Amino acid sequence: MTPTMAICPNCGAWHVYHTVCNECGYYRGKLAIEKEAAL
Q1: Is the distance from CB of 31 to CB of 21 less than 8 angstroms?
Q2: How would residue 1 be classed by pLDDT, with cut points 50, 70 and 90?
Q3: Cβ–Cβ contacts within 10 Å for residue 11, how many?
């Protein structure tokens, strides 16, 4: 079964529905995981 995908309203990246965005770390408009800046 393929997981349902959604577009992150914060950064526009695709992510699995009802999970934290892997690109920006936001979930439902709140910062859930602080991401390190790329070097």
Answers
A1: no
A2: confident
A3: 13
| Averaged pLDDT score across all residues of the chain | 90
Decide if 35 is inside a domain: no
Residues in the chain: 39
**Does the residue 36 lie in any domain?**
no
Measured between its terminal Cα atoms, the distance across the chain in Å is 36
Q: Is residue 32 part of a domain?
A: no
DSSP code of 26? E
Which domain does 15 fall in, by range? 1-27
Structurally, the chain folds into a number of domains equal to: 1
pTM of the entire predicted model: 0.73
Say how far apart CA 4 and CA 32 lie, in whole Å.
20
